[in-house]
Amino acid sequence: MSGQQTIHVGGKWRAAASGATREIIDPADAKPFAVVAEGGAADVDAAVAAARTAFDSGEWPRTPVAERAALLRRVAGLLQRDREEIALLESRDAGKTLEEGRVDVDCVSDAFRYFADLVVGESGGRVVDAGSPRIHSVVVHEPVGVCALIAPWNYPLLQASWKIAPALAAGNTFVVKPSEITPLTTVALIELLAEAGLPAGVANLVTGAGDPVGARMAEHPDVDLVSFTGGLASGTKVMRAAAVTVKKVALELGGKNPNVVFADACATEEGFDTAVDQALNAAFIHSGQVCSAGSRLIVEESVRERFVAELARRAARIRLGRGTADGVECGPLVSAQQLAKTEMYVASALEEGAVLRSGGARPEPSDVRPADGYFYAPTVLDQCHREMRVVREEVFGPVLTVETFRTEDEAVTLANDTEYGLAGGVWTADAGRARRVAGRLRHGTVWINDFHPYLPQAEWGGFGKSGIGRELGPSGLAEYREAKHVYQNLEPRPVRWFAG
């Protein structure tokens, strides 16, 4: 495969039908370091046709479950074999640190293994008691068909794999579109799928922009399911396009996630240190470019000043730089557009009365921080309120807002006062309060005295405008299946409903 042949159709690598290409930019220095094919609607049509043929006439949907699972496990092994190479590619492409890239590869391997184990451990269907020994009734699950998988730019390999692994485990074929600005590790994954022995046509890839590539995938009449992870505005367009042909749709559309800190969590020095440390992790890992980032700190008023002062002090000491450099803790934003968006939100917050406690500007260049890189200092904005744009809207940058509360009810009200509902955290030493608050939060994942970990065996997704459907867990596999009821009469006889 040459650098410009990053479209994969029917088992073959090819250039875009139009011949168009796109440069991939390293966000650490704003310089191009790779070239990919810039696909269009014609490339999507070819990829969907290949996936359709592979599903309708190919072997994969009819491959025994044990064989499908074995292939997924081989992919997990190949990912570990190439761990350093893929992590480096992810770091240069998305701007994250090399260690974050390694963690992503490990998590992707875990996801492939989990879905392999899940399908192998299933029974042959759910027997339904029809109330008669003459009737055999069973509900079985079959693959949906051709899946259109659209992944975001912040976790390119991870988010693509959360879709690809269950789609393959269920016996589907697919066309995947990575983000046009971070496509390289998805290209690498498709190569590994082929190396693992996946039949031609099962996995297809089109690199290119959301419009026209993603738009055509969502509306295509031969696509049976579309799974999209990304922004709310794009997600609603995908849903509208899919509605015309009544496709199955799964959407993960981000969040504005609260991290609620009660004073009793900070009653000891160890508790205080842990809560502050985790608040930094919640807000600033991968420069805040995380759908589940704890970007809204909601802290009890009695400890607010001490907590925010220490948080701001530590935020100012976060080491920014190129993700591959030693000692760097946080990389750049992914693009010039994302940097400008972050600056806009901070300026808006200050105009609306927020108090800047840390950051709020681009850092000075250094040996590990090129002047042209898309770096922005971790920013803490105090004295925020719900009317501010920075509190209501998803920034997707290293910006943490601070709100305060006095009572448990007020904390819950603030935490739920969002259009989104993806994730949230609760910090308290009171076990009863922890359970009460977690039960009242309208968010798909709630962490108690922790923030950010997920498990491949537990569902991931959100309430409200954070989307519909779930990834990971048994429900993540169910998204890629259709339930079929098979009713067999073992002793058929006339019904005699009609006299004639």
Q: What is this structure, in a nutshell?
A:
The protein is α/β, with parallel strands linked by helices.
List keywords for this structure.
6-stranded mixed beta sheet, 7-stranded mixed beta sheet, 500 residues, alpha/beta, 20 strands
Layout of helices and strands, plus pairs?
Blueprint: E1 7-9, E2 12-14, E3 21-26, E4 31-37, H1 41-57, H2 65-81, H3 83-94, H4 98-120, E5 126-128, E6 135-143, E7 146-150, H5 156-170, E8 173-177, H6 184-196, E9 203-205, H7 210-219, E10 225-229, H8 232-243, E11 248-252, E12 258-261, H9 269-284, E13 296-300, H10 301-315, H11 336-351, E14 355-358, E15 379-382, H12 389-392, E16 399-405, H13 408-416, E17 423-427, H14 431-440, E18 445-448, E19 467-468, H15 473-478, E20 481-489
Parallel strand pairs: 7-8, 7-10, 8-9, 10-11, 12-13, 12-17, 13-16, 15-16, 17-18
Antiparallel strand pairs: 1-2, 3-4, 5-6, 6-20, 11-19, 14-15
Describe the structure.
This protein is of the alpha/beta class. The protein has helices at residues 41-57, 65-81, 83-94, 98-120, 156-170, 184-196, 210-219, 232-243, 269-284, 301-315, 336-351, 389-392, 408-416, 431-440, 473-478, and strands spanning 7-9, 12-14, 21-26, 31-37, 126-128, 135-143, 146-150, 173-177, 203-205, 225-229, 248-252, 258-261, 296-300, 355-358, 379-382, 399-405, 423-427, 445-448, 467-468, 481-489. The protein has a seven-stranded mixed β-sheet, with helices on both faces. The protein has a six-stranded mixed β-sheet with strand order 9-8-7-10-11-19, with helices on both faces. Helix 9 (269-284) links the parallel strand 12 and strand 13. The radius of gyration is 24 Å and the shape is globular. The N and C termini lie far apart (70 Å). The mean pLDDT is 97.
